[in-house]
Amino acid sequence: MMRFATFLGAILMSFSALAQVGAGTLKGRITDFDTKESLPFASVILFLNGNQVAGTNTDFDGDYTIKPIQPGTYDVLFSFVGYQSKKVTGVKITANKIQFVNGELGAGVMMEEAEVVEYSVPLIDKDGGASGGTVSREDIDKLPGRSATSIASTVAGASTAGTGGGVSIRGARTSSTWYYIDGIKVRGSSALPKSAIEEVQVVTGGIPANIGDATGGVINISLRNSSRTWFGGGEVITSGLPTETSAIGLDKFGYNLAEGSVSGPIAWRKNEKGEKTDPLLGLFLSGNYTYQKDTRPTFGGVYRMTDSARAEILAAPLRQNVSSSGEINGALYNADFLTPDKFERTPTRMNNANQSANLVAKIDVNTNETTSLTFGATAALGRANEFDRGRSLMNWENNNQTTSLDWRGYVKFSQRFADEEESSSAGGLKNVFYSIMADYSQSYFKREDASHGNDFFKYGHVGTFDVYQQNSYEYNDLTGRFVHNGWEDTLVTYAPSPYNPELAAINNQYFNLFESKPYNPFVDGPYESLLTVQNGNALLNGQSPNSTYGLWSYFGTQGNSYNISNNSQFRVSAAGSADIGDHALQMGFEYEQRRDAFFSLGPVGLWTLARLTTNSHIKEIDATDSLVTNVGTDYYVTYGRLIGDNQFEFDANLRGALGAAEDELINIDAIDPGFFTLDMFGADDLLNQGSNYVTYSGYDPYGNKMTDRPTIEDFFNETSTNEVNGVNYNTRPIGAYEPIYIAGYLMDKFTFDDIIFNVGLRVDRFDANQPVLKDPYVVGQSYTVGDIQGTDGEGLIETLSGNAFIPENIGEDFAVYVDALEGPGSIVGFRDGDTWYNSLGTEITDPDVLAVNTAYPAPWLKPNDNATEEDPFALTSEAFRDYDPAVNIMPRISFSFNISDEAVFFAHYDILTQRP
After folding, report:
1. Alpha-carbon distance 88 to 101, whole Å?
2. Which stretch of DSSP H or E encloses residue 651?
């Protein structure tokens, strides 16, 4: 009983645990070659790469079981006193499978060396309860594909066709397929050096209870282990050395790979004489580097603009737009008049190079015969220029650049209890073991313009514009005076930007294409204002040229995308198992905490936003501040600028940086982009009332990673005082997405006659760990039937001028829908959860019929407690609640048996769930 309590304590010592995905089992029977009688207490020793990794003795019936065993190719040594020893080589142990190896030993003459026989793979897998397949290292070496996904796609039921690189299992979405690398649930890239892969197992059906959170299938990748003796290897593959438009070699696509691996002992145990006996520390190291000029070659190549045509466009990007009557109406792009001779075909896609490096490191600590400790880590670094068909014809130089880094590390401890310890335990416990693992993963990704990076104001900068203004007046017949009614631009001058010369060339020619004339109040000249410059087909800061023929990106146009994502995962997992009779019981738990953070910005539009948020508080005249002047006999009434209270935070910060007065007019387009910083904008400036320039979570609005955990109340209520104008502005912090996933399972694998059963129960608990809307159909709060009726039957319902009927089948907790969001007059329907009713209480399938004066059904909105009088229905934290954790119970049953030496029957029943 004490032994059993010790076993349970080892399993429950970790609050969070998971069955260690990836371990296999070896079973068999040792008999006398002549009599076929079982040999009790015979010795069975397991070797991997020359290292003794496990061992056991047969029971009274000559049966043995060794587990857990990491996937790989092993040698099994059978021995018994008075019998010739036998070594079976090449035994393949597969993850989550039982491998059967029997041994027949001959009595009599014994040789010093064991008899060596090669393992013969059976035609039929007896343990066939789970459908799918396993690809071992020997087969992997023969396959042309190098990635785990390409290897997995060779298994029936798994496919990469039309998935964009992922693996679809039995037609499910690729997001429903989970990858494990040495027991680590993969986030981000699963790229590995081919030389590091021991086996790839694909489970397409009959998923056992120790695997969860997947509704499609599971791909379990096992890495190679260290060896007893040093070995190493390497390979170099090239199809051609890249040039600007092609490659020199066997093909034009420039595929180059260098890969190597090394393994061996780095520390030894020594006996009393100082002689090396067994490795104490073993190392396996593998890595590769890949360069591809074109990651996805196309048949026949692609078209691109010739260098001479690009030079012509750069020198003269515009032509005057002359109407049939001879009037000049701005300019046209010469790119819209290109002919086929201005293009050429290239064998490769331009500026589409991809570089990647992958590394695997693994250290095995052979503590003793019954315990093992493993440290492991993998890393995948990538940098690529994204292909964009719209840019491929004339703007390939501005393909976005992506950088990714995915790394993970783990430590795993396993312990088996020796047979002599188990034999005295109550209940006949055998093969008792437990395994505990902790791992951490991080996946980082960034997309940006290669030339500008995080210099956000360089993205949309085309040049410096000086804008000249004057007061505008309107003659008043009653007073006989010219009355000041605003301000107007009179002239715009331009200096090109050094940051985007191709775009600056458009404006260079535009400002030389028409004759500049002095200001004429009756004629709008081509350079009179920023608006006329824009209408003439020149570019303002923050604008991009129109696509050529509406299809092809104009050359020099930057990508308007800057994205960062940083996702991490921490897991603590454990599993334990014991055999009771013919039942292999296994139980385990898992705790997983994720943190998903991202930041996204459209940097080109920052110039437009800056222009809109500057001077907005001084655009009106102050009728209380007037000055009367005369020019000859004409009198002019001139007003000062009215300083309003609608100053944006960007304007305040900019004035503080420039030292500008509160009523001084600032010309954004005359300032060098290096002067601006993103944090000059306020959070609400960037969110722009829903037409946002940024999206973020776990980062602040300026792309700085957050370390604290703001609440939903902080988003609505947290403010900071601006040092320039003393106004409190909202900071709008949004915390990272940090869901918690917990799972536990109990599984029993046993045989009945020749039938192998695997019966299990898995329980998953998912907590989004964040607020959600109280009502997913209402952005805010709304009244229920009980609310409007009131306690005395005289509530808000009495305020309705139209239909106020409540059918008998409508409950008090039903949501009420009315004919208008503001000032409703009639009830038009009700809703109970996802079930909708019309005003008569009849269930309906199309809720759009309830939309009377609105585009969608209008709930009867309830004023929020923290809202303002100006907007009583404004969204506040009162509309949210904590997420209710979801618990799913999933029974799993599978069985299999051999019909003949060439056929097996298997069946399974699974309930599968996956987190949202």
Report:
1. 9
2. helix 649-658
Q: Which two tokens stand for residue 341?
A: 């001779």
Torsion angles phi and psi, residue 86, rounded to 5: -135, 135
Q: Token pair of 417, please?
A: 């209890």
H-state helical runs in 361-500 = 389-392, 419-422
pLDDT for 799-854, tens place per residue? 888 999 999 999 999 999 999 988 899 999 999 999 999 999 999 999 999 998 88
Q: Are 459 and 603 in contact (CB under 8 A)?
A: yes
The DSSP code for 668 is G
Domain ranges in the chain? 2-118, 603-620+644-692+699-735, 772-882
Cβ atoms of residues 354 and 384 within 8 Å: yes
Q: Which two tokens stand for residue 780?
A: 């805010």
pLDDT band at 17 (very low <50, low <70, confident <90, very high): very low
Q: What angle do CA 429, 434, 440 make, to 5 degrees?
A: 165
Instruction: Determine what percent of the chain is predicted with pLDDT higher than 90.
Output: 54
Tokens of 584: 């292999």
Q: Which two tokens stand for residue 663?
A: 């009523």
Nearest to 654 by CA among 694, 620, 687, 685: 685
201 and 131 Cβ atoms separated by less than 8 Å: no
Q: What is the Cα–Cα distance from 225 to 363, expressed in whole angstroms?
A: 8
Could you count the other beta carbons within 10 Å of the beta carbon of residue 513?
Answer: 18
Q: What is the mean pLDDT of the chain?
A: 88
DSSP 465-514: EEEEEEEEEEEETTTTEEEEEEEEEEEEEEEE-SS-HHHHHHHHHHHHHS
Would you say 32 and 39 are in contact if contact means Cβ atoms under 8 Å apart? yes
What end-to-end distance do the CA atoms of the chain give, in Å? Answer: 43
Confidence of residue 420 (pLDDT cuts 50, 70, 90): low
C-beta of residue 552 within 8 angstroms of C-beta of residue 691: no
pLDDT (tens digit per residue) in 301-332: 899 999 999 999 999 999 988 877 777 788 89
**Amino acid identity for residue 853 in this structure:** N
pLDDT-derived band at 525 (thresholds 50, 70, 90) equals low
Count of C-beta atoms within a 10 Å radius of residue 629? 10
| pLDDT score of 416 more than 90 | no
3-state secondary structure 696-722: EECECCCCCECCCCCCHHHHHHCEEEC
Secondary structure letter of residue 310 according to DSSP: H
Residue 857: strand, helix, or coil: coil
Q: Look-up: residue for tokens 């060794």?
A: 66
Helix (H, G, I), strand (E, B) or coil at 798: helix
- 173's enclosing H/E stretch is none
Pick the closest to residue 463 from 437, 493, 433 (CA basis).
493
Distance CA 590, CA 742 (A): 5
E strand or H helix at 381, and its extent? strand 371-385
Q: Which residues pair with 345 in a beta bridge?
A: 303
Topology at the third CATH level for domain 2-118: Immunoglobulin-like (2.60.40)
Gap between the Cα atoms of 313 and 311, Å rounded: 5
C-alpha 869/C-alpha 863 separation (Å) is 10
Contact between 101 and 92 under an 8 Å Cβ cutoff? The reply is no
Count of residues making up the chain: 916
Predicted local confidence at residue 419, as pLDDT:
58
